[in-house]
Design goal:
This protein is of the alpha/beta class and 348 residues long. The protein is 43% helix and 17% strand. The protein has a domain at 2-187 and 222-250 and 292-313: NAD(P)-binding Rossmann-like Domain (Rossmann fold, 3-Layer(aba) Sandwich). It has 12 helices and 12 strands. It binds nicotinamide-adenine-dinucleotide and 2'deoxy-thymidine-5'-diphospho-alpha-D-glucose. 2'deoxy-thymidine-5'-diphospho-alpha-D-glucose binds next to helix 6 and strand 8.
Length: 348
Amino acid sequence: MRNILITGGAGFIGSHVVRLFVKKYSDYHIINLDALTYAGNLENLRDIENRLNYTFIKGDICNYDLVKNIFQEYKIEAVIHLAAESHVDRSIKDPFSFAKTNILGTLSLLQAAKNYWKSNLNNKLFYHISTDEVYGTLGNSGFFTENTAYDPHSPYSASKASSDHFVRAFYDTYNLPIIVSNCSNNYGSYQFPEKLIPLFINNICNNKPLPVYGNGENVRDWLYVEDHAKAIDLIFHKGKIGDTYAIGGCNEWRNIDLVKVLIKTVDKLLGRTEGTSEKLITFIKDRAGHDYRYAIDATKLKDELGWKPSLQFEEGIEKTVQWYLKNRDWVDNVTSGDYLNYYKEMYK
Ligand code: NAD
Ligand code: DAU
């Protein structure tokens, strides 16, 4: 058995990574450490929770004693680190919790790995999952690559940038075997409906306003979450120690155009007349420090490891909308309670 610690495995991307690894590698023991914040949900992993090669631990990555004990008790040989505070708008309201989890939490894991692996670094790996937001913003042309200079603008991206620097500092200073990947926007099932795509699908279903920030012309590069999980699998097994990999969908959309695709898809699947929900589009005050455009050049990952996205966007978005329509219970569950206060506060 190879013992792998995955952090944040009850969240959106983490649950897809845990599912992929648990199902594909019966000779790996996957230990999922997650604090179950508002964004973490064990419902995301119901289908695999009883597998023999899977263990869930509820806990905070900032708790160094807990993390240290997990390394010892489960003889951890590799880490895939996804746990984070991940929503830009929340980071604008509460930057402290982002610094705590994303920076200090990452440091706590790095220290535990370094101290536990110190006598033998063979076949060990600390794989840190990061974001393209650390690179800041692009104008109308150009792409982020592994060599783009860091220029974060939000408290979220500043905290992720800082965590990336700590990870690389542990490689340079202590030879800790690390890999970092920086990915563009993900979409798919189990994403918390505070992020653009699930939020808007839910609002279209419920005939609620669609709050588009600014003029809706900001651009994002969207990748189907299962393709991100496959890239993580590939990089985890074949990536070069010390390297960085940029992951992207090669799939840029202006927000306003994406919103129209969502409206068309939801209206079609609900049997509404085409365009019915366009009236819900509501332009609101822009996000502070709103990055204009993200776009990734994933040539290195394609050329060196042979990865490419498997799904066309139209197919991915239709699958995604279908999932949210079929899983109303999941959506209702996560949008009750605290979510209602968050929504009122954010969009008042
Ligand atoms: P998410 O918010 O859906 O999930 C985060 C998970 O981390 C949740 O399960 C939460 O309970 C857990 N968590 C939070 N704080 C914790 C703590 N202190 N201790 C233990 N667990 C804690 O996030 P996501 O969208 O799945 O993103 C996962 C990772 O991928 C993050 O590191 C994020 O920066 C990165 N990323 C996300 C995207 C994207 O589009 N969503 C793109 C690129 C990179
Ligand atoms: O690029 C990778 C990043 O993508 C990840 O690191 C983050 O964790 C993830 O949240 C995502 O960040 P964004 O800020 O790009 O995603 P979000 O879904 O919040 O917003 C996408 C775009 O839509 C962005 O330009 C802001 C806009 N938007 C978002 C919301 C929630 C709106 O216009 N209205 C909204 O209500």
